[in-house]
From TrEMBL, chain A:
<feature type="signal peptide">
    <location>
        <begin position="1"/>
        <end position="22"/>
    </location>
</feature>
<dbReference type="InterPro" id="IPR007410">
    <property type="entry name" value="LpqE-like"/>
</dbReference>
<dbReference type="InterPro" id="IPR036182">
    <property type="entry name" value="PCuAC_sf"/>
</dbReference>
<protein>
    <submittedName>
        <fullName>Copper chaperone PCu(A)C</fullName>
    </submittedName>
</protein>
<dbReference type="InterPro" id="IPR058248">
    <property type="entry name" value="Lxx211020-like"/>
</dbReference>
<dbReference type="Pfam" id="PF04314">
    <property type="entry name" value="PCuAC"/>
</dbReference>
<keyword id="KW-0732">Signal</keyword>
UniProtKB/TrEMBL annotation, chain B:
<dbReference type="InterPro" id="IPR003782">
    <property type="entry name" value="SCO1/SenC"/>
</dbReference>
<feature type="region of interest" description="Disordered">
    <location>
        <begin position="26"/>
        <end position="53"/>
    </location>
</feature>
<keyword id="KW-0732">Signal</keyword>
<comment type="similarity">
    <text>Belongs to the SCO1/2 family.</text>
</comment>
<feature type="signal peptide">
    <location>
        <begin position="1"/>
        <end position="24"/>
    </location>
</feature>
<feature type="domain" description="Thioredoxin">
    <location>
        <begin position="52"/>
        <end position="222"/>
    </location>
</feature>
<protein>
    <submittedName>
        <fullName>SCO family protein</fullName>
    </submittedName>
</protein>
<dbReference type="InterPro" id="IPR013766">
    <property type="entry name" value="Thioredoxin_domain"/>
</dbReference>
<dbReference type="Pfam" id="PF02630">
    <property type="entry name" value="SCO1-SenC"/>
</dbReference>
Amino acid sequence: MNRRRTALPAASLALAGMFALGACGSDSDSDSGSDAKAAPALKAHGAYVPQPVMADMAGAFLVIENSGGKADKLTSVTSDLTDEVQLHKTVDQQMQRVKSMPVPADGSLDFARGGNHLMLVDLHRKPVKGDKVSLELHFEKSDAIKLSVPVKATNHTPEK
Amino acid sequence: MLKRKTLTAAAALCAAALTLTACGSDDTSGSGDKTDPAANVQSEQKKGGALLDKPFAKPDLTLTDTKGKEYDLIEETKGSPTLLFFGYTHCPDVCPLTMSNIAIAKSKLSKAEQEKLRVVFVTSDPERDTPKRLGKWLRMQDTSFIGLTGDFDTIQAGARSVGVHIEPSYEKKNGDVVSTHGAQVLAFSPKSDEGYVLYTERTSTAKILEKELPAIVKGETP
């Protein structure tokens, strides 16, 4: 059977998600769906790295959308900028490292200002606005996704 | 060196509620129809700083500045429009975002206005934020920014007096150090020296600050 593609109002969902998320992340529902044959279908977009203040850390933000009927999990991220990328969720103004993050079926995993973020530590160099940084997203089920991510201004926040 | 003063732990209520806005909308997965609770809250208030019915007194904080000198917040900023934020430098998202927004908005002010404005960043993570590190981090954003560090309990009490809730940094088993940043920027009037306008994570954008700082500098209602 083919992958089921549910038509999602992609843009609006992503944006609303980023906005609503502002917070603790969608870590609740992972394995939903009794639909065992469906597979996750992942796409990443809107990725950016705000220019860090110093070379010891940077954040990264993006949206991973899953239009498949099966949940997946982001298990790790690698980058040319550092040997260590951590997955963080923010709870009550504190960031907590987590080992993986669910990408819900027919949903999205959002890394957005004030909420989840990727934290890149001990950078090999300090990237500046206009640079590109590579990010490779690794998942439990799906193939890895490679991204070339633009470095934006320190205060960059995507328009709603 | 650090003066310890007992501070009234009273006023936390108002902003504690505001602090919470960061959390709570954890069901973002769902399907098509979404009513965005955050958006609803937003639409109820004007897009900008919140004028406080009950302004905050300036926190009675004497701490160490980035040059290692004693800095008495009340004394040093008396009669100056002042923005106050509690955060830490090992912070990849909200702290640099907030300070960068302030730096950008400040750069749009006239030279005279810029000279009046005091921007004070008090660390919520004094263990890691030495005067030297604070200075280096802040200088990257704006050379005029004032950075303060010192005894955590003193800082926490000062934060609490203006409704900002911070927890001491702690180390987890995996070696991560977890720190807290405040969720708001407080603007103090040059006329009353009171904190009368409050910006949350949502309203402390460069755009809003740029629009409102000229009024803040005069101690007027933005």
